[in-house]
Amino acid sequence: MNATQEQLKVKLQKALNAAFGADYVNVDPMLVPASNPKFGDYQANVALVLAKQLGQQPRAIAQQIVDKLDVSDICKLPEVAGPGFINLKLKTEYLEAQLQVIQADPRLGVPPTQNPKRVIVDYPSPNIAKEMHVGHLRPAVIGDCLSRIIEFIGHDVQRISHVGDWGTPFGMLIAYLEEAYPEALTSTETLNLGDLSSFYRQAKKRFDADANFQEAARQAVVKLQAGDEKTLLAWKIVCQLSSRAYQVIYNLLGIAPFIERGESFYNALLPEVVEELDKKELLVENQGAKCVFLEGFTNREGEPLPLIVQKSDGGYNYAATDLAAIRYRVEVDKVQRVIYPVGAEQTNHFAQIFQVGRKAGWITDDVEFVHTPFGLVLGDDGQKLKTRSGEAVRLEDLLDGAIAYARADIEKRIQQEGREETQEFIHNVAQVIGISAVKYADLSQNRTSSYIFSYDKMLALKGNTAPYMLYAYVRTQGISREGHIEFEKLGADAQIVLREDTELTLAKHLLQLDEVMGEIEKDLLPNRLCEYLYQLSDKFNKFYENCPVLKAEEPVRTSRLVLCDLTARTLKLGLSLLGIKVLERM
Ligand code: ARG
Fold this sequence. Notes:
By secondary structure, the protein is α/β, with parallel strands linked by helices. Among the domains are: 3-90, Gyrase A, domain 2 (2-Layer Sandwich), CATH 3.30.1360.70; 168-256, no CATH class; 466-577, Isoleucyl-tRNA Synthetase, Domain 1 (Orthogonal Bundle), CATH 1.10.730. The chain contains 20 helices and 14 strands. The strands form four sheets. The protein has a five-stranded parallel sheet, sandwiched between helices. β3 (79-81) and β4 (85-88) form a beta hairpin. α19 (527-546) packs antiparallel against α20 (556-577). It is globular. The mean pLDDT is 93.
């Protein structure tokens, strides 16, 4: 609910009180945005609900409320319509004044939260004993976006990557490092990082082909877990190798810096976790394994399902590590909200560990742990995106493909338009458009759905795409160039006059950013921001087609320039929260 709605709600409750007595002052006036802009901006539906209780016709009730309602500072004369709706239309002067306020506000009308919390966003959290592939895209992009938005709202955000840096997958890599690069274990020089992808492939080849090597890999895991120094060193080198190669891609994607605190970090804490669960009488021995029985999870026979915390061989698993992380985040990090942008296939895992976290008393009512699941990236065939040979597509190849596509497109446009541009310009535009297109295509979907990855779609200049949005921004900047106008110098006191419908529609939309941010803070759906920005571009384009800006007479000219500037600033801010950079020209 935005500030305007808040005020209207209070006024409606006052009117309810005046019309029907003090019992009605806390009744929800059921104020919602109007179903059709023809009827106004908001409508209050409370009269329909009260009909029974008051034993009167809804229209009559609505009329009595309206008779007592004073919204003259915000709205035109309220109207009773249909079966008993109260329609409210914002006054132009009110909108003008509100716009004036956000024009002077670097935060564009989104006040910092009154209730700042300590928040951890657990991302991108890949398993690093693998080469980076398409499956690593969504956690990085969604986690980065949610972190940016929550931080902007004013919370204290820690980005923590719970990397899978421990366990069996490392055996193969350690064994291969020891076999193929023994010098890495003795010299202080680091391996050539360009080797990483071939390193993985070679290791896998050896593993698949040679039973002795497989045994060496298993031994490596045992030695690693026993804390053997040489093995630990090899493990560290493999982790560094991965981390650094991953970082190159995160840089390319423009993912903000995060802390790496992987599974290995919690190793030493695992026995304590088991001990505490035991003390709290939550642990049950089941076929030698230590488990916690869960409510609401049953196997096919309908028997309660246990969550294994320590295996019968004494080893710990993914769940145990995550329990240690929950405990650490609450007790040491003193966190109030933890967000896990992780694929939907781990929904049960999170429901289970959160349940155990609550049973153990780590997750109390004043801390919120949320899994924000997402769907898959699919190929044209509706299956997980794969290469022709059936492997997961490498993330680097996926991004390079988008950049190459964007490059071909800009080169074609330059030629058609007879423009002269430097190589540097072309390179930069292709890079920004290519990467933004991939990110935007991901974020603009409802997070929980899977989507089909298509360069044609995501790089189209029309539709709900990054290029379209970037182009809208470029358009605003073109106005400032054409008119030799420095938007920053328009002044916070520049007068605003709204006359045309397209101006009013744009103005109302500009005033809704705060509300959108509030929604995203709650439901953690970045596509709401994409949708808002898409609508903004659309409303701006309609305004721009209908209303001359530079050729208008004062005071309309300045007022329209302010609308252009506000649109530009909102687009720039909104895109930056999606992790997308704008271009001045493209
Ligand atoms: N490494 C895991 C994977 O790639 C994701 C980890 C998510 N974070 C967590 N705390 N479990 O599947």
